[in-house]
Amino acid sequence: xxxxxxxxxxxxxxxxxxxxxxxxxxxxxxxxxxxxxxxxxxxxxxxxxxxxxxxxxxxxxxxxxxxxxxxxxxxxxxxxxxxxxxxxxxxxxxxxxxxxxxxxxxxxxxxxxxxxxxxxxxxxxxxxxxxxxxxxxxxxxxxxxxxxxxxxxxxxxxxxxxxxxxxxxxxxxxxxxxxxxxxxxxxxxxxxxxxxxxxxxxxxxxxxxxxxxxxxxxxxxxxxxxxxxxxxxxxxxxxxxxxxxxxxxxxxxxxxxxxxxxxxxxxxxxxxxxxxxxxxxxxxx
Length: 285
Description:
Strand content: 15-25%
Strand order of the largest sheet: 1-11-8-7-5-6
Order of helices and strands: EHEHEHEHHHEHEHEEEEHEH
Structural class: alpha/beta
Helix content: 40-55%
Number of helices: 10
Largest sheet: 6 strands, parallel
């Protein structure tokens, strides 16, 4: 029977540690600042941004929200990003995705200063991650590694399978597991005999976007199962990409949905903002 990995509890512990460090910086006259740019009126994005703002303020950081209309031009958005790049009171910049169709997400991500890219999506930060250099890492993958470590199980030498190859979760989490000396397989929709591949994993990370896709036959007895999914089941109830009830007896550790990976994402964003601020304060001398 699986032990439940409590993402809420771990996120709270990490946020408390970040808050302590922020208060030490503020005492020296150095307040980390996070700016979030929200384009249009997507309700899911708005809710998510509100949570980010609340948590940023709770951690003692400066929180700035810039709201732009749906019809804002790409040039205007890029100018907004450039203004934030040049603002010394802002150390982290996040442009909430998705953006309206007339704006290139790639152009906007590329425009954010590498040093202030707290989402970890800038090509230079992605490149640094892949060659193993210290860098700002995407928040969800960073949170997943913390969740795995919280089990007390060593990652080194373990076989890890990541189902999903997105640039936001699948690829970076595979790279982070590799850095922790796991043997890593990235599986996806074209993988032959996916359950057989998955069931060899000591650590199974699932990011498919398909509700309750992973069943018991995907899971090695005693494996650590990390469910990145946020879906709705046939009763419109929140669920993950893993069939929690089916897998629970088989797994050694498992993250619930909600309350697993989700709470970690905003916490790692705050941790990234703190890291970016400390790097920039050190540069400014």
